[in-house]
Amino acid sequence: MTTQTPTEHARTSAVSRTVPLRGGLLGAVGRRRLVVLAGRSLIFLGVLGGWQIASATDDSVRLALSDPQSVAGWIVSWLRGDEPSGIGALGHTLWAALVGGLLGVAAGIVLAVVITPLDKIRGLFTPLVTVLNAVPKIALAPLFVFLFGLGLTASVYYIAAAVVFIEYFGVSAGIRSVNPLLTQHVRLLGGGRWALAREVYLPTIVSWLFAGLRLCVTWAITSAVVIEYLGSTSGLGYVIASAQQISDVAAVIGGLIVVSAVAVVIDQVVVAVDRRALSWRDA
Amino acid sequence: MTRAARRVVALGVPLIPIVGLLALWQWASSTGRIDSLMFSRPTDIWREVLDMEEAGELWPNLRSTVQLLLVGWVLATVIGISLGVLIGRSRLAGEIISPFLTFLNAAPRLLLLPLLLIILGFGPAPKIVLVVSVVVVVVIFNVAAGTREIPEAVVNHARLLGARRRHLFLLVYLPAIALWIGSTARVTVGYAFNGIVAAELIGANSGLGFLLTQGQATFRADTIFASLFIMAVLAVALDQTLAQLERRATRWMPRPA
Hints:
Largest sheet of chain B: none
Oligomer: heterodimer
């Protein structure tokens, strides 16, 4: 408090003077936060309430969308492990996403490191990569099920194929973004090929790698669930598919909510890790 | 080298990896190094494409896919612009809506299809809604970013000159947003393509995705690869058209070095 500058002092005293006058316990910031919270709750409750009322008054809505209690009931019983494919299904999906994602990222890095220098020769590989990347990834799912059968192998390869180009383009752009002045400088200081790779290229690639990671994680989880839905006998996608087959709408919606919630949590974790890992860059 | 020769080299050299890969595929499949029943081979796939054309399967399905893709994309863009401007201009609205958008963005929306099929029945409606759901979140984020980047001075200046809300939208926001929509169109159309194919894979009786599932159901690798080939051609064609349009539309802008 003793080191407070005059302006800071003026600000704090101004706040302490205005707060009791205008808003009681809440300052302007607090009030704003309250409005935001109220708005969010209003939307959330509005959707939930609308769903509840519609399903209670109209049978066709209840058949198509179930109702909030049944869905909540399904999620609770799934969390308890009462459903035939319980928590283990989630583990299966995440394991496939992890292995497939890592495989895809590794393949993307290797491809970028090998192809990017070659691509400097008149864009040698640009058309091939463009064509391969242009195929909608979702369309590869039936192909991989056809080639590798129902099971983890097809999932892992499919997920890898879905994320490989994200990191390929990221790392490739990273390699091309390296400032030639920097490489010349390292050479001038007597650095060889190895020093160049370790001191210049590796740090650049790592930061570009992180930039693509968030997209990779989202795509890996989505792809895992999609291929499980289309052709598999385990995992959350299979839970949703089999619930749909017996017209258990509560389980379909419950499964979708669980998948989305898991994806959001993992996405937020990646964002937090990202911020930590790259905090040195902007500083 | 003469000019013509240089052009031939510039166009021809990048084809080497593609032709090489196809030749390798053909050779490995014909000599039994890979199972031709599973992996087919380029000549058989091309013959299958011609067969599809002859059987009248190619063009109607292609048209169906392109139509639904474009309708969905346009709808998503219109909805995305209205919500995006709202979020971009009002920080309060942005703060209120953002957690819902984050949730929607992370949720695997491709899986909404079973639900949409139950609600909307078969036909084009669930497919279009799926495409919209896949694309709209990205458009909202882009438009919000585009709106936020408009300098306050420009807005104030327009106001000072007597612009009303309507003028502001038409003369200030819309051009800025159009730029963002255009520059992200290649990505969003790619998303839309994924959405429409997903819809056709799961519950449809037309479209390129439907051709693909037919190949899978009858265990015909030719049909699967031929459908994928047609999709790749369509995707590249769409992408190149958009790139060309973007180059045209932004010709007046100063190029970044």
